[in-house]
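hey can u check if this looks right to u? its 305 residues, i copy pasted from the old doc so theres a chance i mangled smth
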Amino acid sequence: MRRIIGVGETVLDIIFRNDQPVKAVPGGSAFNAIVSVGRTGTPCVMATEVGDDHVGDIVTAFLRDNNVDTSYVFRSQGTQSHVSLAFLDDNNDAQYQFYKNHAVLTMHKNMPEVHEGDVVLFGSYFAINPNLREYVSTFLAKAKASDAILYYDINFRASHVKDLPRTFDYILENMRQASVVRGSAEDFGILFGTTDVEEIYGKHIAPYCPCFICTDAARPIQLKTPEVAASFPAKAIETVSTIGAGDNFNAGFCYALLKENVTCPQGLRAMTVEQWRPLIAMGQHFSSAVCQSLDNYIPKDFIVE
């Protein structure tokens, strides 16, 4: 049975509006996506690290309650789980402050076993953290050799610009392993100094990975492959919070890979725009649902179209 495997960091997101805390929810880019996948009943697993504290207990129980396999949630002894503060502005977009100690991160050396047809979702700073690179790099190489589909969400925050000199090569390595690279226009503005999709794909993505998705808030989603260049209008919705919007686009897209029976990287590269359309639409469907609540994931009663 095919499954979706998330690899990434986990935090406790404390959400503020008008400088007052309004909610605290477990989060993290791959984490948010995998919880949404779990809520659809799709087989999934989360590989992550949390502290041996009460927050770690909350996170692990939350994953189990949402049908996520927690066999690879590593409880790092003597450490505290990570926390982020998310301050919502008048447009319900978030500005973040992170409280983390990346220097003490570690992971299982026995990462999840990946089989042909599985989907591996990875990204953010976790995927380029020098302290975790040994584990992540080995895992991705094995996953690619298994003919799994590797979905890389770059998700590069401005707060990590100072780390670029020692992590940029890891981003390139991740793109070489990936079947699909997704990022936001903001990510690429930080990394490459441009938001021009043609330039980003031709110069910075295509030499490493053939399939590229660029999201840009409420502006159209851009898709580039060797066979396809397409634009998909974003849905107009009233937002409560944009936290988790991109993460849940990832969740919907990866879920659709299974639903549409896309089984291998070679299949992606050969697809027509009409074959890509339901994948993008499902990503938008998940993302839109999340933007209408303060949760980081689709609601439990979410209806998959």
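The first helix runs from residue 29 to 39.
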